[in-house]
Amino acid sequence: MVRTMQIKIEDSPANALDLCRDMSHVVVAGRNMMKIYSIEEDTFLEKFNLATTKRSVTNMCCNDVVWCPNDDQLIATGLTNGAVVLWNLGITGRSKQERVFEDHKRTINKVNFHPNEAHYLIAGSNGGDMSLFDTRQDNPGQIFNTNTNEAVRDVQFNPHSYWQLAAVSENGHVQLWDIRRTDRAEHTWSAHSSPVFTCDWHPETKSCLATGGRDKTIKVWDTSKGGTRHEAEHTIQTMGTVRRVKWRPQRKDYLAHSALADSSINVWDVKRPYVPFALFEHKDVATDIAWLGDPHRMIATSKDSTLMHHVFDDAVRPGDRANPVGLGFSGRGEVVHASRQFPKLPKPLAFPGGLPGSKYRKPLGMSELFRMCKSKLAIHAIQQQDNSTTTQNGSMTTTTSPYDSGPQMSDEDLVRGIAREYKLGDASFAELCDNNCYVAKKMNKEHVALTWTILKTLNACSTRSEVRPLSGEVVTGTEEWKDDKRLRSFSGKHNRSKQPSRNVSGNSSSSESSTSEDEIDNCQALTDIARGCTASAIAGDFFGDGELSGLGMEHLISLEGGGVGGGCIEDAHNSSQDFAIPIEAFEQRQEISEAGKNEELVVDGEDSVHTVTVEDKTSSVVVWGTHAALNTRQIWDQGPFVTETLHWYAENGDIQSAVSMYIVLAVGRNGEMNSKMKGLVEESVLEHWFLSYVDLLQRLQMFTSANEIIRLCPLATVNTMNCQSTTFLSSCGSCGRTLARNDGIWWCEKCRKSPATCSVCHAVVRGLLVWCQGCGHGGHVQHVKEWINKQAHCPAGCGHHCQY
């Protein structure tokens, strides 16, 4: 009985493995190690150790190994020093090396035998070229130059075409070569956006090739289709970089892959590419995989020096462990519910001529159930009304805001609308906050609008340097303040007949000041209240208007200005009519006789004069001044609050609000970086925010808004993105020759034609030219637009499917 088993390789981890023709033996190779094991029912038996001689050890740093499919005696290895070693197990003696090919100077990444010819051996290296060796001769092999300096990571012969091979490289391209022609590839296309590490031809389907790379995707291609803009037939998103891809035998739509940083081996169904069909677990990263000619058996090696034999019955089924029910809420109050939809069972079949009631129902296999798995998605939205209404359903109360009366917008439309209407510069800070607050409200983002209002309040008038004397401070140099209009809040005897207004001492203030001055005072008072460093809030809000005016609020001790000065008592006597207190306002109590801490305030009433003894520290309220010689007050720092707010928006997926608020706070006022905002967010985090927002705008094709965000970013790594990749060389649409000369834009020297010819009207384009990046044909913008609206193929007649 076949079962899952493993063996520990003592020498070193294996970098690669391969099976012989009858799948009874496996060869594993690594650093200073190369062994052959026999695959038994319950264990692995070591048959050969090819690293036993001094000569063989020098050629033992193997990067890849392959067993000849036509001759069980031949094995080839690719070394890290650029050599290709041919091993012959039929040689008598301890050393089994037959030939060493040293055509390459850099690491060999992949070696492979021809599926039909045992003497043809191909090798791909980091030098960007491939060599085809004839193992019967010692001559250098044929060189296939890819015309790039990118490493060739995998080479595979097409089992359905005698002369064709596929090569993948680190520039993300896939090339199809004819081994009879070494000067250029017959077909090349860009398959991945990053290096491609592996490829594998389908064993049954002709022209079917699977590739995988660093972009965490596996793509299946139909190589019979032409065109440079090749589109994949299937795409599978994986969790990590793809290291190896192998088609599953006898299963047309199944393949397995191992990752570069993940320890598991996943088996995928290309018809259901979102969850793996099966999973084999390892303790460390799997370095190579191979099927044992049976769809239920696999062999693999890993970096923990383990050789494992997997049986499909012991595999983990991620689809069975997945939660079949999902529930989610949106910011607009929508509820989304997803559940599994069970497939309908096939109808029972009656046997012809059988007994009545004898029916046969074919049971569904696990693979069929996995592929037939479907889900149902339901979205429940709150019914919109014109006005704000409240509906009650049982114990749940739903409130519809007037802002929700408009039609619901998708997330993409919200991002587009906010990006278009937000203002991030060329205006004052208050104007930017007001405009962005209005836009956020219009887009039904009340919490974002409230944040803009709070930021405006915290930073309003923060750039003013005007000094305002507060109550309780000792004013030195009285003549300096007598002519100041703000002195009106400290002496109310000159304007008792005017309309009273709230101030620090609770007295009346002059109404002769202009409206603009009152607005400035109110703005400054609002800012001081938000910062918590003013006494006006104490006197006016906590104690009420005029409640402490009779208690001598002006004579509270200032910790910055010292004790009570001489000028303050005179002011108290001069403003005696403002501090007139009835006799009934005070209950009879014993006089405080402690020396040195009392002072007498003479309060003139209408009928008589009363002397009231008041303690210096009547209240525990201490008023801090803003112009004292020693400023030691603790002002609330808004930096941590702003930092926490920006991080909250970014962590909850609203990167647009986080970046916009940072720009307005840091660089939105005068186009220069605000020194107070330096260090508000770490540069690494800030760079990630900006790049994410720019990528989001570019995906939505809002390139102008993305360019504006790049320009306003204070980081040099992001701000200089506009200076990169701005130079390109045009090519001739007929022959593909690069037009590098200054006078070669209107004329191609190779084909003697004008490359800027409109494919629709066949006239020379002497203005704005648009062309297809796939086939190179184009013409006048208006002509191409009219053509693409009616036709899907290139107007030049090349057969390419252009995407304008």
Number of helices: 16
Instruction: Order the strands across the largest sheet as they lie in space.
Output: 1-28-27-26
Distance between the termini: 59 Å
Mean pLDDT metric = 74
Number of beta strands: 39
The general outline is globular
Rg (C-alpha, Å): 41 Å
Provide the structure class: alpha+beta
Major sheet: size, sense and barrel closure? 4 strands, antiparallel
Helix content: 10-25%
Which parts are unreliable, with pLDDT below 50 for 5 consecutive residues or more?
A: 385-406, 461-517, 533-579, 592-610, 614-633
> Which percent band covers the strand fraction?
25-35%
Provide an overview of this structure:
The strands form twelve sheets. A four-stranded antiparallel sheet has the order 1-28-27-26, with no helix packed on it. The protein has a four-stranded antiparallel sheet with strand order 2-3-4-5, with no helix packed on it. A four-stranded antiparallel sheet has the order 6-7-8-9, with no helix packed on it. 20% of the residues lie in helices and 26% in strands. A hairpin with an 8-residue loop joins strand 16 and strand 17. It has 16 helices and 39 strands. It is an alpha+beta fold and 804 residues long. Among the domains are: 50-142; 146-237, Thrombin, subunit H; 411-462 and 637-723, no CATH class; 478-586 and 595-615, no CATH class; 730-804, Herpes Virus-1, CATH 3.30.40.10. It is globular and about 90 Å long.
Keywords:
single chain, 804 residues, alpha+beta, Thrombin, subunit H, four-stranded antiparallel sheet, 39 strands, globular
